[in-house]
Amino acid sequence: MGINIRGRSFLTLLDFTPEEINYLLDLSAEFKRLKMAGVEHKWLSDKQVVLLFEKTSTRTRCAFEVGARDLGMGCTFLDPASSQMGKKESLEDTAKVLGRMYDGIEYRGFKQSVVEDLAKYSGVPVWNGLTDAFHPTQMLADILTVKEEFGDLRGRKLTFFGDARNNVANSLMVVCAKLGMHFCACGPKDLKPADDLVAKCQEIAKETGAVIELTDDVKQGAKDCDVLYTDIWVSMGEPAELWEQRIKLLRPYQVNKELMAMAKPTAIFLHCLPSFHDRNTTIGEEIFQKYGLESMEVTDDVFLGKQARQFPEAENRMHTIKAVMYATLK
Fold it and tell me: pTM for this one?
């Protein structure tokens, strides 16, 4: 029997089987083929979706808006100034109202409980565009990029360098566990993933043949690595006062030419973006002036180098998000 996830919400990949994740990846690849070939696929022209953004974004917003329009759907964007959610209207009431007007709801914000409550009360599929705990739509784009590069996934080693407690690292560990990959969290012991999530992923790994590894040794993290992944050192919503502490903790885990050379010659670099790889941002220049760093989590030569795949990865957000919307609304 074929895979059917119609009507389901997409909150965390913990809720999906390996077969369902692979189905979404295959569907993403097909949507990408159609897009590249210029084949129209307005298959959901009777649907309307709403995007609730409490955190700003470039890739997530654009991917949902373009994906929705490619599928023929109407799309409404609401930022905090455009919605009464949590201010004059409760989350539950907002969810019930939106669920009567829209066929699907995307949420990007802070607490995982918010996206879960939207799904609980709205009665329509809800998609997690990012919370402090998980970033599942990013994972599909990441893994599609790995598949495009290597073909196979099982046994491939992906190492996340940096703050391994954040939403991206959490979600990478989950998707690697589900798909039988080798996930390595490489960072300071004080910034390791939560024990309960590690335990869940280790249980999943017993069924899929995945490997879950935690280390603070960059050489161990890079050894036999196929994919080197990093993220900015202070996440959106965290106070700027953390920069000094994080720079001290995470500078040894910067992805640079020396670290790339420790991995397989065929290894690729991924980043969920945005990135502080140079001084061409306000924050990048401020950090340089204060701490003398030309780049932070990744050096410019790696970011612009031949092993970098972060821009195809960013494009894949559109194709994978389109697959999630279609599969849950068709």
Answer: 0.96
Single out the residue of 326, 330, 329, 325 nearest to residue 128, CA to CA: 325
Question: Are the beta carbons of 321 and 71 closer than 8 angstroms?
Answer: no
195 is catalytic: no
Catalytic residue among 61, 70, 132, 138: 138
* Whole-number Å distance between alpha carbons of 62 and 47: 18
Is residue 184 among the annotated active site residues?
A: no
Please identify which residue in the block is written with the tokens 């999906």: 16
pLDDT digit string (tens) for 47-88?
999 999 999 899 999 999 999 999 999 999 999 877 767 677
Instruction: Assess whether 135 carries a catalytic annotation.
Output: yes
The question of whether 62 is a catalytic residue gets the answer no
What amino acid is encoded at 300 in this protein?
A: D
DSSP string for residues in 247-297: HHHHGGG-B-HHHHHHS-TT-EEEE-S---SSS-SHHHHHHHHHH--S-SS
Chain centroid to CA 295: how far? Answer: 22
